[in-house]
Structures are given as C-alpha cells and as structure tokens.
Design a protein that fits this description.
By secondary structure, the protein is α+β, with helices and mostly antiparallel strands. It is built from 6 helices and 8 strands; from the N terminus they run αααααβββββββαβ. The longest helix has 29 residues.
C-alpha cells in the first residue's frame, strides 16, 4: 500500500466516524466505504452490491440504490454547509437514473469528498504532525500591548484581547537564524484562517533573527500593529532554518502581503522540510482570543 492509498483509507475511516452514529447499521457503513473509495470509482453499483453481499454474508442487491441514497443523506446532514460553499446541494436529487452518469448524486458527492474535503483533511494532518514535532515553551512568543493608543484590559499570559493593538515578540534559542512563522486562526464563528506571518510584506519582510529575537510588525512592514477582531483561538508555528526556503510564495510582496498557506503550499513546505530534516527546529504556541472584561 502506497502512502497515498494509506491516507485515502484513513480519510475514509475518518469520514465514516464523522457521519455514522454508533447505532448505524454496518450495511450503510460498508456501502459508504466501498462506494466512495477511489479504488472502486470505475465499479458499477451492482458490483458494489455484490461485494457487500460477500462481506456481510447477505445483502438484498436490488436495494443498493436505496442504501446509497441513505448514505448520501448522512453525508448531507453532516456536511451540508461545507458542500453548499462549493455549490453542492444533495437535496436536488432527481428520481431515477440521471442521463449523464457524471451527474449521478453519489459521483457528485464523491467529487466533493476527494477534490475538496480530502486535501484540507491532509492539510490538517500535516499541521498536527508539525505541532507534534515542535517544542512548546511558553516564553518563545508573546504579545505586548501598544499602550500609546488605548487603556489595555488586563489579560492572562495565554490570552489576547479583541480590539487591542499589539506587537509580537519572538525569542528563539536555537542555532538556526531564518524564521518561518505560520499562523492559524480558529474562530467561534466557524471561520478558519491560515497565514504566513514571516516572511511577509504585511508583518516581517526580513526573516533573519537578530540576536535570536524578532519584533513584529517590523519597520518597513505594511502593517503597524497586530489586532484580533474575533473570539477564538490563535495558533503559531515557528520553523527555524539554517537557510531561507526559495519558495515563490515565501518571497515578501505587496500583491500577497500575508500569504495564505493552503493544502498545496503546506504539502510543498513539508516535502522541503522532509528533504533536510536535521537542519530545522519547530516551536508552537496558542492563545485564546477573548473579549475585554467589563
């Protein structure tokens, strides 16, 4: 089994756990796992029904269409909002068999799962892998309020306050000197953001640590302060390297002041890091974003 096939299998298991409750019949679970695995893409529904009959020790093959419909209902109930963002509406299922088999409801759902959901699942796995490799001392990253602007509410060390103007302090005790700082925001309104803070034109055009320290935003950056406007969680992952990575999206520019790291970019970054695993270190820290207390 290749690494890609292993990840696909893990993804199928992940979605199975997401959409089916403990009380769901094994028939629906197996139907999903067989019908929606890439290995069976070319197989017809009757072929899936035969496989189900063999594995379950009995299955009413003519009912395969009904069972697939039940699986689609489970997918819709769990992922309806996500699907809608990509123009997928499984409520608009015509009765009978569509003239264009490419428009078959299960094929539409399959396409969404593997073209949209799977890459972001892979990205989340890579993000968690990087976090596991990271050291997490509390002192390496902190925020100092810009007290010249407002009276700053008191907050705990692991918190930042909505609407407050901050500077970010980075201090990393390591031999490497070039900083790559990734940010992920997970907010209570359901929004998730992924940005490169350093190097970036917005916050830190220069990625070299001076005396193992860095203050952001830097002089010459497009932004003069850092503020948080939504309650949630802010994650920061620093990767410190001997040399800067020559990836185009890591070159500061005004067209993309704070580059977004997406599945393709994070996978590209991971590939480069894996090629030279002994010459970088990672550090992680998270903060809760809270409203100012009265």
């Amino acid at each position: 089994m290749t690494n890609q096939q292993s990840q696909q299998q893990q993804f199928i298991e992940y979605i199975t756990d997401q959409i089916f409750s403990i009380n769901t019949t094994e028939t629906q679970k197996l139907c999903f796992q067989l019908r929606f695995t890439p290995e069976n893409w070319e197989q017809k529904n009757v072929d899936i029904a035969r496989q189900m009959k063999e594995e379950l020790g009995g299955f009413n093959e003519p009912s395969i269409g009904t069972t697939i419909g039940e699986v689609l209902d489970k997918l819709k109930n769990h992922f309806e909002e996500e699907m809608a963002k990509h123009g997928i509406n499984l409520d608009n299922r015509p009765p009978g068999r569509p003239a264009d088999q490419g428009q078959s409801p299960w094929r539409i759902a399959y396409g969404w799962l593997w073209e949209h959901k799977f890459p972001y699942w892979q990205m989340d796995c890579l993000w968690q892998t990087l976090i596991k490799k990271a050291a997490s001392p509390s002192h390496w990253l902190g925020f100092t309020p810009n007290s010249n602007r407002i009276v700053v509410p008191k907050s705990k060390k692991h918190e930042v306050v909505v609407g407050v103007s901050y500077h970010m302090h980075v201090e990393l005790d390591c031999d490497q000197e070039h900083l790559l700082l990734l940010h992920r925001g997970i907010y209570n309104n359901g929004v998730v953001t992924n940005y490169v803070l350093c190097p970036s034109q917005a916050f830190a055009p220069v990625n070299r640590l001076k005396d193992k320290k860095m203050l952001m935003p830097q002089s010459g950056a497009m932004c003069e302060e850092i503020t948080f406007d939504t309650v949630g969680q802010e994650e920061f992952l620093a990767i410190v390297l001997e040399d800067s990575l020559d990836l185009p999206w890591l070159t500061p520019n005004e067209e993309e002041p704070a580059p977004i790291w997406n599945p393709e970019r994070l996978k590209e970054l991971w590939t480069r890091l894996a090629e030279d695993s002994n010459n970088w270190q990672a550090f992680y820290r998270s903060f809760e974003v809270v409203k100012a207390s009265a």
